[in-house]
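Escalation from tier 1.

The customer reports that the assembly of two entities below gives different structure tokens on two consecutive runs. Tier 1 could not reproduce it. I'm attaching the input and our single run for tier 2 to review.
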Amino acid sequence: MIPDVSQTGEAVEQQWVPQPKAPVVMLNNVGKTYGRYQALGGVSLALSGGVTGILGLNGAGKSTLFKLLMGKLRATQGEVRLFGTNPWKNPAPYARVGYVPENESLHDWMTAFDFVTTFARLHGLTRDEAKLEAERVLEFVGLTDVMHKKIGRYSKGMRQRAKIAHALVNDPDLIILDEPLQGCDPLARTTIMNVIRELGRMGRTVLLSSHILSEIERITEQIVILHQGRLLAIGNVHAIREQLDNIPHTIEIECSDAKALARDVLSLDSVHGLQFPNNTKLRIFTHHLGEFHKHLPKVVVENGHGVTNINNPDDDLQTILGYLTGGPR
Amino acid sequence: MAKARGETIWTALDRKATAIAEFTMRQYRTRISTWVVLGVGFLSISVVLLFYIDAMNTEIEAIDNDGDSFDSDGDGYVDGQEFKLGTDMFDEFSHPGLFNPPIEPEPASMYINEDDYDWDYSDARSVSTGYDDDGDCLESQLLESQKDTNNDGIACNILIVFNSLTGEYEIFADSGVDEDPDEDRYGKEAQHRAFVLAIGKLGFVFLLSIFIPLFLATGLIRDEMTSGTMHYMTAKPIARGEIFLYRMLGYLGIVWPYMLVMCLLMAIISGLLGPGDQFFRFADLGVWFSVLIAALLATLVYGMLFCFLGVLWKYGIILALPIAAWELGMALLSMSVPESTFLRMSVVGWSMSIIDSGALLVWPDMDMFTQAGSWAGGSNDGNSFFSFETESLPGHGALEWAQSDLGLGMGPYPTIIVSMIILLAQAAFFWFIGQLVFKSKEIE
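Tier 1 run:
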């Protein structure tokens, strides 16, 4: 996870020299500016294997990062390496990459089967090979029964899966998914999450972006947080959560008797403040989220409180980013 | 994926090329705009075709070019008959009815179109031709010297000499030779040739070959970049220059068959309806072939150019419009001043050279035929006997406008070859800079 420039070796530009030891993705102090607007600044990152979630709000630079990796954009500073090769103006490394762009436009007039077949042939497959490959990947994403229908008639989730299928032809080593869950219904989300987890199990390097922490958490523990074009945090999602333990958190508990619960909860060391919005709702302030969550179940069970809902309003990305960038908002 | 035996870079290229070309063709076919553009092209050519059909079915009024169907003295005998028999056409008391035995007056219609020109058209520099069909020269009472006013030693003929200084033919005719041509015969032939040339140059090479690429090729790459679907193609291991080229292949896969069908349609209709004794004007197929070649190359060059402009700028069509206007100017210039050096900086100029060369190969008499129409058969050199009408024949104006010389100063075959090479080089050049621009384009 931590950038290590020394392990990359010298990349030869414009010429495809496979470098098995180079990390799949390597960014060294990469920046991208549009005039005076900085979309991405000084990002360093090296990734090989596993599923990594790139987390950030809209405009944090996730898509920019992916587009730099896919040679769609040119870095204004630093070096971008894909399998040890600069991807700008050099499509050779894309042979090992599958890319699912964020934009929703697709070739609606094609069937998913034709779409995947056509683009599989760009990997140099023959017509027959491409058809076999298309059938394989469409089955993998669960579109086999609708693959001969026009994409224009697909639901959002099916469209996303068609895009993922097209990216999976030729069995890529790196799969980049830009907001693959955006706009999908819960069922499609689950299907796509399973597909991504499966890819991770198969040993592929998967990069996916999202602005929803809980989504990413369900897929992977390895996350990178981007904020305003900067790399804010990198590592295990639990480790990041641990860091969050030491900053004030709010927890809302809906229960039958808020006052009774408050009495018992006050005995916990981690609690440092309480509020009663109404009789059935208790708002708890804590500096040690992990500690609190460890003891809460015991308190609830031992005293027989009828808890209907535990809500952690701070546990969204916006709040986390607020804390990480300095103090609660 | 392991490479199979016999796999070369070419087989891989071929797979990518056909994949993108097929994809592009299917994409065109699903778009309604493609059919609108091609349909409008078909309609506009068809409208011009209707005018041609109308012209071919309209009898051109016969004119008495030499005025000898007129009865000047009112004695019932037309001037031509009186002249032939040696009576005084201005004296009502001198006419062939007073002969013994008296001769009946001939109808005036016998003296209209009675001496059509009958030379063998050739591209020789100096030709002695013409025959006095009605006998008003050979059988007249004129002196031998009066029968040979052009002083070439041959009585009652026409001498055609090419003047290399002016680049035109000079015509020296003895009086009364080929002086009353058949307007309908000349007019139909001239109109037919003018139609083939005009529709080939302005219809196919200018109108179709500019506007079809303008609407179909400008967005070939740009539309995909705007809609975001270009992300799928550019994420595959294929160079952008190849994408550009194979997209163009798909475009040609739609536009070239269309041009072929349109050309074939025109060739068949005009070949069947055109003037002539034969059932079908087979020779004209040569001209249509040159029109086809010119149109195919023009759509190729303009396609590359407009596709490049689309890549260059989101509103590439705005850049394409002044080019279309320039090409229109060049098209008109090519028809009037074919040797202008400005034409070398156009696509249309080179394409039209191909058509002019093709026309010259099929109709080698083109220059003479055109000029013959201007002097209306009778000699207009001032010493002719019958030269009442020296206006040009019907169809001559149209033909003179549609036809132009080869501007390169070479023969037709070299002109065709040079023009084709230049057009292909232009296409390659636009592809080259187009893919350079595309390659360094950031795709949002």
